[in-house]
Specification:
CATH architecture of one domain: Alpha Horseshoe
Helix content: 40-55%
InterPro entries: Ankyrin_rpt, Ankyrin_rpt-contain_sf, Znf_RING/FYVE/PHD
Largest sheet: 4 strands, antiparallel
Shape: elongated
Low-confidence stretches: 19-24, 84-110
CATH superfamily of one domain: Ankyrin repeat-containing domain
Keywords: ANK repeat, Repeat
Radius of gyration: 41 Å
Number of strands: 6
Oligomer: single chain
Number of helices: 12
Distance between the termini: 143 Å
Structural class: mainly alpha
Length: about 300
C-alpha cells in the first residue's frame, strides 16, 4: 500500500536543498581536442606517423628514379641499334628461313640461344619471357613521330623538348654550320622562321648563315622553306650579306649558289644600294665580275667604276 506525505499542520516538510551545479563551460581548446580526437600527445604521434610516411615515399621515389635511369640507358642502346650500332650484351640474331607452324615466315622466328626478337623494340628477349615482354613493351613504349625513335611514353615529351631546343640553340647551330643539328631541331618543332628579338636588324637565320659563309647551311635553310629574298629591317636581302663575307672564296661560292637559286640582285637596301652597288662600294672586283658573268636577265649591265 502506497504511503504519501502527511498534510497535517504538525508535519513540517523540509525544503529540497539545491546544490550548486558543478558543470562548467567547455573551453575552446578542449572542444578542439574533442572534435579532432587528438590531444598534445596524439598530435606528436600523428606527426611522427607522417614523417615516417614521408620517408617511405622518398625511398619509393628514389627507387623509381633508379628504374627510370635504367630505362633511359636501355633507350640509348635502342637508339644505337636503330642507327645501325650493336646493343650492349646483345648478340647478332639470325633470322630462321624455315617456315613457322602455320607455314608462314614471321619476325618471331628470329631466334638465337632461345631468344626472340621483339617486333616493337627490336631487343632479344628470352623465349619464356617473350609474351609478357610484348605486353609490357607495347603498353609502355611509343615512337617519336619526328625521328621514329622508340621511347618510354613517360619520356617522350622530354625527348621532343630536348631535341627541339630553343632559338639560341638554333642560332648557334646556324653560325657554326651544324646542319644535322638544325635538321633535328626543325624536325622536332623548332621555328626556323623566327627572328631573334635582340637583333636590332631583325635578320633571319638565312641572313645569318650567309653572313658567316655557311653554304651548306644556306642550302639546308632554303630546302626547309626559308625565303631567299627575305628582307631585314634595313631592307637588306641575304644577297646583300653575301657580298660582305670576308673570305673571298666563300663569298664567291655562296653568291653563285644564291644567284642560281633565284636571289634577286636588283633589291635595294635603305641606302639605295643593290648587291652590285654594294660590291662597288666595298671594292670587291671578283664578286662584281661574277655579277657581270651572270645570265640573270634582271641584271643591268654594271659598270666597273668603283665608288667610295
Amino acid at each position: 500500500m502506497d504511503t504519501y506525505p502527511s498534510t497535517s499542520p504538525d508535519v513540517r516538510i523540509k525544503p529540497v536543498s539545491r546544490k550548486k551545479s558543478r558543470l562548467q563551460p567547455i573551453r575552446p581548446d578542449a572542444l578542439r581536442r574533442t572534435q579532432t580526437g587528438f590531444g598534445s600527445g596524439d598530435q606528436t604521434k600523428a606527426v611522427q606517423i607522417l614523417l615516417e610516411e614521408n620517408d617511405r615515399l622518398k625511398k619509393e621515389l628514389e627507387q623509381a628514379r633508379k628504374e627510370i635511369f635504367a630505362l633511359r640507358e636501355e633507350n640509348l642502346e635502342l637508339k644505337k641499334q636503330s642507327r645501325g650500332g650493336p646493343i650492349k650484351g646483345q648478340s647478332t640474331f639470325v633470322t630462321s628461313s624455315k617456315p613457322t607452324n602455320n607455314g608462314k615466315s614471321s619476325e618471331d622466328s628470329k631466334v638465337n640461344n632461345g631468344e626472340k626478337v621483339c617486333n616493337n623494340c627490336g631487343n632479344g628477349i628470352p623465349a619464356n619471357n617473350y609474351s609478357l615482354h610484348v605486353i609490357y613493351c607495347e603498353k609502355n613504349l611509343t615512337e617519336c613521330s619526328y625521328c621514329k625513335m622508340k621511347f618510354n611514353k613517360a619520356d617522350l615529351d622530354n625527348h621532343i623538348e630536348e631535341e627541339r631546343g630553343v632559338y639560341q640553340d638554333l642560332l648557334e647551330a646556324v653560325i657554326k654550320g651544324k646542319t644535322s643539328d638544325i635538321q633535328t631541331m626543325y624536325e622536332h618543332g623548332n621555328d626556323i622562321a623566327a627572328v631573334d628579338p635582340s637583333d636590332s636588324s631583325e635578320n633571319t637565320l638565312l641572313h645569318i648563315a650567309v653572313k658567316h659563309g655557311k653554304k651548306n647551311t644556306v642550302e639546308l635553310l632554303l630546302k626547309l622553306g626559308l625565303n631567299i629574298n627575305a628582307l631585314n629591317k634595313n631592307h637588306e636581302s641575304p644577297l646583300h650579306h653575301a657580298v660582305s663575307i670576308k673570305d673571298e672564296q666563300d663569298a664567291l661560292e655562296t653568291l653563285e649558289f644564291m644567284l642560281l637559286k633565284g636571289a634577286d640582285p636588283t633589291q635595294k637596301d635603305k641606302l639605295g644600294d643593290t648587291p652590285i652597288e654594294k660590291c662597288k662600294r666595298l671594292g670587291k672586283s671578283s664578286l662584281l665580275m661574277l655579277f657581270l658573268n651572270s645570265a640573270d636577265e634582271r641584271l643591268p649591265t654594271p659598270s666597273m667604276n668603283f665608288r667610295m
